[in-house]
Hints:
The chain is built from nine helices and 16 strands. It is α+β, with helices and mostly antiparallel strands. Helix 2 (105-120) crosses helix 3 (127-137) and helix 6 (200-219) packs antiparallel against helix 7. The radius of gyration is 19 Å and the shape is globular.
Amino acid sequence: MAEASARAHPNIALVKYWGKRDADLVLPVAGSLSLTLDEFPTTTTVRLDPAAVADSFTLGGVAQQGTQLSRVTEFLDVVRELADSDVRAAVTSISEIPTDAGLASSAAGFAALAAAAAAAYGLDLDQRALSRLARRGSGSATRSVIPGLAVWHAGDDEGSFAEAVDGPELRMVTVTLSRTPKAVSSREAMVRTARTSPFFPAWVTSTEETLQEALEACAQGDVERLGHLTELHAHRMHAVIESCDPPIRYLSPTSLEVFDEVARMREAGRRCYATADAGANVVVLTTPEDAEHVAAELSVHGETRVVRPGPGVELISRTESA
Ligand code: PMV
């Protein structure tokens, strides 16, 4: 009976992924760019169980049912097809981030699950193949396979993977404002945005342009340019989300206060740029020199933490027992 464990970290997008071109294959409408963090890991163990009739999924010691379980089962079906297996598995996962609070728990979760499941089912995947596989669980997981800065190419099934990008030395300051699950899942909200926002086509074309500019800024080590594009693109993503029908708003009044405070610190000479994913929490892109100051200033709004670029997904163990 094979068992494997893997660990992955969340990533925060500087150029956001929002919208699928193909929902089954999880192909994005445009490419994106992110930084994998070195905090808040998810550790997942997959144990094959030939006697089981169904998969099971335990998160933080609690047996999961409904959507959480069916997403894991659907993902394992992709792995089973690749491995030509019909054996069910017991999945246990420990996450150090609050699930569904907008800090990309699904990215770390599916990157760890992809590596653990691939190893347990005996697949020998290189980094690119693992990134493509993680994509099938959750789009943002494509990038958590990769350490540090990662670009996710839009591509077709073969060409839609993430890879490492060289760039300036960066830090992120996480500002945790909300631990409550978001009202509308990013999956559902993406579909609604694509179907109902009149701005969606402009979002798609401008995202590809922003990505090219951001990649140039990385190559030049230009923190100001990369930071400017990061904050701009966060505003654009939230604008397109807010323009769908019925509207969805992830940012809270406190999130906007943090954005304003970050702009004030920037005017005072600090290099800091705010962004937020599908939730109220704000993450600030900054430099090693400015990170502690930024974290201290923002701690009146919420719990802050200085985070460094982190590793890609790591296989911790693989065992085979009779
Ligand atoms: O991977 P998903 O389906 O949870 O999508 C997350 C999308 C954002 O986090 C909002 C943006 C991004 O690029 O990570």
